[in-house]
Each structure stands twice: as structure tokens, then as C-alpha cells.
Amino acid sequence: MRSVQRFNKKTRVKSQKERVESGALFVSLKPAGYPLRSSLHEYPEVFENNVFEFYAREQWNGLVVQSGEYLFDRRMFPDFAFKVVNVVPEGSVIGQSTVFLIEDVTSDDIVPEPSNTVHFDDVIGQDSAKHKCKLIMKFLDDPERFGKWAPRNVLFYGPSGTGKTMLAKALANTSDVPILPIKATQLIGEFVGDGARQLHQLFDRAEDLQPCIIFIDELDAIALDRRFQELRGDVVEIVNSLLTEMDGIESREGVCTIAATNRIESLDPAVRSRFEEEIDFVLPDPKERLAILQSNIASFPVELDADVNVTSLVSKTEGFSGRDLVEKILKSALHAAILEDSLVGNRHLEEALKRTTASSLFKNSDEGMFT
Ligand SMILES: Nc1ncnc2c1ncn2[C@@H]1O[C@H](COP(=O)(O)OP(=O)(O)OP(=O)(O)O)[C@@H](O)[C@H]1O
Ligand SMILES: [Mg+2]
After folding, report:
1. Are 298 and 346 in the same domain?
2. What pTM does this model have?
3. Ligand 2 centroid, distance to 102 Cα (angstroms)
4. Low-confidence stretches of the chain (pLDDT beneath 50)
5. Does 268 lie in the same domain as 152?
6. Which ligand has the minimum distance to the alpha carbon of residue 290?
7. pLDDT tens, 225-262?
8. Which residue range(s) make up the domain with 350?
9. Structural domain contains residue 318
């Protein structure tokens, strides 16, 4: 069956009778995926360009194509879309001598993190991590000076909500270099081979942009100990690809990789050993809890009632992470006050505290790891 281009009413489809023998000299296509996504779909790959060319001429013969439009496969992978990147001449007809080129999804498609407003000083405590980040900034400023002594791979680890992602964002914001962020969870769950390819593109992109930082968040999602990896075959492949990329440093002298995890003890030892330094993020002590509470209260859109005693809150929040304090206590108290159209009072904070359990008290279990 003939393929019909959609999303462009202007497209003319010539009748089967007038088969076109010439027209477009050259069409380059980029796999664009399905209009709808489901885990049941296979992501097709063009394996033999010559064979694909015959197939493409046959099924799209007679279509007028413009760059920017989509062509849909109709046979083997119905509705899989290819984006037309280039047509020579523009607006010509696909015929029996049109040459097709399939472009890879390139590393240019990876976009650095947009700027944010988090600053180093906003991260309370975590002094050793901040020292390391300052060193990384000096390195990024002048990578040649460091040579083989460059900071390469650094691991942030520690309980959830202690500022690992926040510090990486502050580093991106404060240094003048791009940071390429990826969540390891993004690498799994789609199609076998996707994760390894994404990683390769990420490191390729970093090579183009150096000096720069790669930030791999939630590393444990892929780099778990082998016995867990075996539960998911594709994860083994991703881990191997990560190891290969981390080892291939020759052409990436200006790249520093930071990864973050809160399950350091279950990381694959091979991955773990690639990090030159493991930086421990710890739960805030009373002084730090006070500073986190105060600095966040300062940005409340509602005023505090005179009865609020932040210091007494500090003694009641032993074991709470920065996230617990901000997201569970302060936010919940603020929302309750806004609903009542009142100032934020002690009762709002006490109520929030009653409803909250410090994350550090949650049972630490490996159940649900892959959910
Ligand atoms: N050290 C800190 N200083 C100030 N605020 C903090 C600190 N730690 C956590 N917070 C607050 O908690 C929020 C969550 O922190 P963040 O996302 O950086 O935690 P994380 O360590 O990356 O956690 P996870 O391991 O779950 O990814 C921050 O946006 C901030 O509001
Ligand atoms: Mg995080």
C-alpha cells in the first residue's frame, strides 16, 4: 500500500499509474519514532542502507517531499516516522532514482542544561563536596594546566534529599561551562540498545563541548551490583557501555563526570572503582537545619506569626534531610496558612511535623528497586 504523508495537506500524491522515474535526486531522513509511544513497539533500525533505499523508493514513489515533513512507514513498522531533513531539489518527487540517506540521531540533539538560579551559597553544609566543586571549576577554567592530574570522575553519594542534585546545579550555574545532565533512569525501559547509544552520544557531545561537565543523576538505576543487573539484560549492556565511555578519556581531556547515588553500597564495584573520589553527603546537623529553615522561610510569600520559634523546630527535626525540611515541613505549613488566609503560625509547623516522618527513618529495603 502506498504511504500517505500526513500533517501536510499541501502534499500531493501522484497516482500509481504515473510512476515517476526521476525527480528528487537526494532525500535525507532521520528516524523520528512513532506518533504514539508504547513499550510494545520495536524501534526499527535501518541496517542496510542500499536495501532500505529500494524499499523507500517503492513505498514512497510519487510523493512530493519538502524538508521538515514526515514520511511514515506503512509496511514493516506501520506508522514509524522519518523526518525529512533535506531534499534536493526542495519540493521534488520521490522516484526510482532518488538516493536516500539515513541520518543517525546525532549527539547534537543533546542539549546542555538551561541556566538556573541555584548558587553554591544556597547549599548549606556539604563542605567537602563544595571544595571538590571549586577544584573542578578551576580545572574547567584551565584544563591544560591539570594534564593527567585532572579531576575526571567524581561520585556524590548520601541519603536522599541532602543536596547532591542541588550542588550539581549550583556548579552548572556558577561555572561558565555547559553541564550535560542525564538521569540514569532515562537510559532504561525503552528499547534494548537505546541506553548504550544515549550514553555514547552524551560522551560524544561532551567531547564537542569541552570543557564541560557530565552529570549522571541516580546512577544506581543502572549501575547496580551484577546480581541485580541480571534481572534486566539491557542494564548489563548499559553498564558495559558506561565503563567503556568512562575509560576512553584520551580525547576528552576537558570533561569531568559527576555521578550521584544514594545507594553506594549496592553499586557495581567495577563502576564504583572508576571514580577517583567518593564524596559523602550527610544529613544536616542542628546548625545546618537552622540555616536551611531560615533561608527558606526568608522567601515565604506569607509572613510569619510572632509565635514561630524556628530554633525549637530544629531540635524536633533530628534525622530530617534538607528536602524533608523544605518540602515536607515548610511547604506544607505554608500551604495550610495560605488556605486559611492567615500568617504562618507555630500550629501550622507543628501540624506539618506531626504528619511527617524523616526520610532517614524509612525502612531501607531493596524491594521495589526496579519499579
Ligand atoms: N544542603 C542543602 N542545603 C540547602 N537546601 C537543601 C540541602 N539539601 C537539600 N536541600 C533542599 O532539598 C531539595 C532537594 O535536594 P536534592 O534534590 O539536591 O537532593 P539529592 O541529594 O539530590 O536527593 P536524591 O538522592 O533523592 O536525588 C533542594 O532543592 C533543597 O531545597
Ligand atoms: Mg538528586
Report:
1. yes
2. 0.68
3. 37
4. 1-21, 364-371
5. yes
6. 1
7. 666 555 556 677 788 888 888 887 667 888 999 999 99
8. 286-360
9. yes
Quick one: cell of 288?
Answer: 545546618
Domain boundary among 75, 104, 133: 104
Q: CA 87 to CA 211: how far, in whole Å? A: 36
Ligand 1 probe mutation, 133, 160, 162, most atoms within 8 A of CB: 162
Strand order in the sheet with 153-157: 179-183, 212-217, 255-261, 153-157, 277-280
16 CB-contact burial (10 Å; exposed 0-12 / middle 13-18 / buried 19+): exposed
247 and 129, same structural domain? Answer: yes
Residue 366 in domain: no
Q: Are 214 and 333 within one domain?
A: no
Do 338 and 212 fall within a single domain? no
Set of cell numbers at residue 356: 511527617
- Cell, residue 227: 546480581
User: How close are the terminal C-alpha atoms of the chain, in Å?
Assistant: 41
pLDDT, tens only, 134-173 = 999 999 889 999 988 999 999 999 999 999 999 988 887 8
